[in-house]
Amino acid sequence: MQNEFSYAKELLDALASGGAFLVAGAERPNAMTIGWGALQRIWNGPMMQVLVRQSRYTHDLLDKDPRFTVAIPKPGEFRKEIGVCGVKSGRDMDKFQELGMIATTPHNGGIPGIDGCLNIECRSIHNIHVPVKGLPEALITKIYPDGDEHTLYFGEILAIY
Ligand SMILES: Cc1cc2nc3c(=O)[nH]c(=O)nc-3n(C[C@H](O)[C@H](O)[C@H](O)COP(=O)(O)O)c2cc1C
Question: Which CATH architecture group holds 4-160?
């Protein structure tokens, strides 16, 4: 039976081999590259989890509007876009416009995804700050040399297309 979890392999494969996009911002959608994420069953439903560092423009956007879309490229596609969206900030440029990416029409009250990707349209129903305290020292040194901790968002899935 096809359900939300049928897409878990595509998501995890993309995250492990370059990344996927996290689109946030209703007025002017912005895409950032993500390497971490999960499709999980929590609170009796399928939930999409993403982790965003507090310094990101995307974090500011999610503070204003909790909706986001995870856009998963097919293997080998969107390489340049994944690269740019992983180093450039939407504070400094309109990534959709500069990269010629086409925003999709939301399917169920969410925000756009990216044309040509598998889009998981979500609304964050909860988020928690993830303190580094308690993590193994080696991970703190490697992943959090400057602090800049993550917020973990729990996205209710509105549509997949
Ligand atoms: C492969 C890859 C994976 C990344 N994964 C994440 C992630 O899961 N969470 C995060 O906060 N930043 C992640 N980043 C960094 C952001 O994509 C990057 O800082 C981006 O420029 C932020 O864009 P924004 O300022 O427009 O939000 C990743 C970068 C790369 C290249």
Answer: Roll (2.30)
- Asked whether 58 lines ligand 1 (CB < 6 A), one says yes
Q: What is the mean pLDDT of the chain?
A: 96
Q: What percent of the chain has pLDDT over 90?
A: 96
Residue 1's pLDDT band (cuts 50, 70, 90): low
Count Cα neighbours of 93 within 13 Å in the Cβ-side half-sphere.
14
Going from N- to C-terminal start, the domains of the chain cover 4-160
Cα(2)–Cα(160) distance, integer angstroms: 11
Q: Which residue has a Cα nearest atom 17 of ligand 1? A: 86
Q: Do the beta carbons of residue 42 and residue 154 sit within 8 Å? A: yes
Instruction: Output the pTM of the full model.
Output: 0.97
CB 21 within 8 A of CB 70: yes
Ligand 1 centroid to residue 125 C-alpha, Å: 22
Of the candidates 49, 28, 19, 37, the one whose C-alpha atom is nearest the C-alpha of residue 122 is 49
**What residue has token string 């492990």?**
16
- Euclidean distance between CA atoms 88 and 96, whole angstroms: 12
Alpha-carbon gap, residue 59 to 82, rounded angstroms: 18
